[in-house]
Sequence to fold (481 residues):
Amino acid sequence: MSDTATAPPRRPTTGPQMTIDGRSVGTETTITVVNPSTGRSFAEVPACTPAILEMAVGGADAAFDSWSAMPITTRRDLVGQALDRIDAATDELARLLTLEQGKPLVNARSEVQSGLRFSRAFGDMSLAPEVVVDDDTQYIEIQRVPLGVVAAITAWNYPVMLALLKIAPALIAGNTVVVKPSPYTPVATLRLGELLADLFPPGVLQVIGGDDEIGRKLTGHPQIAKISFTGSVATGRAIMAAAAPTLKRLTLELGGNDAGIVLNDFDAQAMGESLYWAALSNNGQVCAGLKRLYLPRSLADDVCDRLAQIAGTVTVGDGMAEGTQTGPVQNRVQLDRVRELLDDALSHGAQVVYQGDVPDGDGFFFPITIVRGVAEGVRLVDEEPFGPVLPVLIYDDLDDVVRRANDSDYGLGASVWTSDSDAAQDVAKRLQAGTVWVNRHPHLTPEAPFGGVKQSGLGVESSRYGLQAYTDSKVLNIKRS
Ligand code: NAD
Fold:
């Protein structure tokens, strides 16, 4: 694989435009979006300017009063219609998603469909007032009131799913929204704005393109009431600081370095596939993917052999190609980072259990790699690799492995792999994470809140807790004589 493009540059086609106040808005300055499977540009989309950002936030602010005053049933109905439109456009959105993100088309389709499933679930959740006192002397109820303009900022690994998980609850709760996708993957999200442009009243849903700098301006904007952010811990910290001057509400879904602990009754033949995909689905670019695999010494050889055997059957290639199971790393910066972490681990004595091949060409492919012989203190173990490299660590003592798993600033997810449910629950209880899965990892569901502890985040998405996160509580307190 070469880092320099050898194929003739292909002129990118113009991609979708921004949607502001129900209108299509372009800019002279554009972002060039690269298809990671080919390394070549495939679309140009507008880069929001500070002046246009003012229009977007100002328009969303102006729309807030009437949108929030609408009955929730009307808002739910409009969001439902939006989801129907997106559903009807699944194939188009999935294709754009594969071209910009790299994931196989089948996974892009399921990303769109999962986003819809999670979003529809918000429509059935109640934000009705809760009466806490109702007697002869007083009446007290807790209402849930919307916040204002929400800035929804997303990462490049699941752009459509992440955007939908923010847009649907924010709008149902009565907020207006300005969405800013990652500059690496803005296309499907901008298209989503276009699909909905004439559905909502102007200003209710604004979709802009832009880089980190426009993200900074958006999150520092005084008219933004809440920031719902999915991305790295470093950016999460910057956003928390940007929120401080006007005390913006925050939901921060940040990085993870999830430990998976295999117990000594694990059946590698039966469960190997689940364990493999826990670590390496979406090419390892999953916030709550299994990123540190802890094996008991007695099973280490067996489980490593099984994982290597499975890895050898995986078809790596262009996400648009039939049969592809794993695509490229999404961008070159990330590709270089994965390479750097693996090289560092090898220089610290890591032994390669498996290393696959990559397709020829200029795509951002990195070979699927499983290593052992590493421990904490090596960057590949301590940091989030976010790519197709899995470190396997050996343990001898259960208490010790729980301590090692918890010895991290991250706390997004974790997993225990065993058929002994008492042992699983005992270990799960001691792991510091927003979710602990048993015999799977990750598994998100609209009924359960998803979020991280420690530096993996603040607040949750999904479930009624995720919906409530787009509201403040307001108490109505009446004295009765
Ligand atoms: P990133 O933090 O670099 O960027 C995310 C978004 O923030 C982009 O839209 C970017 O333009 C914007 N941004 C960057 N700097 C900003 C700033 N100072 N102010 C405002 N916005 C800014 O993250 P990434 O590389 O796109 O995504 C990968 C990371 O996201 C990984 O750490 C991954 O674990 C995490 N992630 C977390 C979850 C979760 O739910 N917890 C889900 C997906 C990804």
User: Anything to note?
Assistant: The first strand starts at residue 13 and ends at 14. Residues 153-158, 180-183, 211-212, 215-216, 219, 230-232, 235, 238-239, 253-256, 287, 384, 386, 412, 452, 457 surround nicotinamide-adenine-dinucleotide (CB under 6 Å).
